Amino acid sequence: MSPPRPQAARFRLKARRYTDFRAMKWSKLLFNILGMPERHPGPAPSHIFADSELFRYERAAFREATAVMDRMRVAVVGCPACRTQPAAR
Predict the structure, then answer these.
(1) Angle at 73 between CA 72 and CA 79, to 5 degrees
(2) Nearest CA to 56 among 33, 78, 36, 88?
């Protein structure tokens, strides 16, 4: 029997270490608000962008999250699960 391996290697998960874990957590929240992940529950991003009221709520949530990040001095970083680069604020 072989010795146990770390879970990330065993299941071939891509792991990445961030100097500030908050940057990854808050950046992931921004991607979730935008509806980037395909597994995101709820209406499709195209439906949200087409509905002015839903879009207003999503935009307010995004702005609030970026305001909190600015206040906490947390940078936006690329997330391994999201196939996009961080946008400049």
Answers:
(1) 100
(2) 33
SS3 state at 65: helix
Alpha helices in the chain (DSSP H): 7-10, 21-34, 45-50, 52-72
Residue 21 CA to residue 52 CA, distance in Å, equals: 34
Question: Alpha-carbon distance 50 to 24, whole Å?
Answer: 29
Mention every residue, 6+ apart, whose C-beta is less than 8 A from residue 18.
24, 77
Angle at 88 between CA 54 and CA 50, to 5 degrees: 20
* Tens of pLDDT, residues 2-53: 555 566 566 666 677 888 889 989 988 888 887 765 555 677 778 888 999 9
- The tens digit of pLDDT for each residue in 42-57 reads 777 788 889 999 889 8
| Closest C-alpha to 76, from 35, 38, 20 | 20
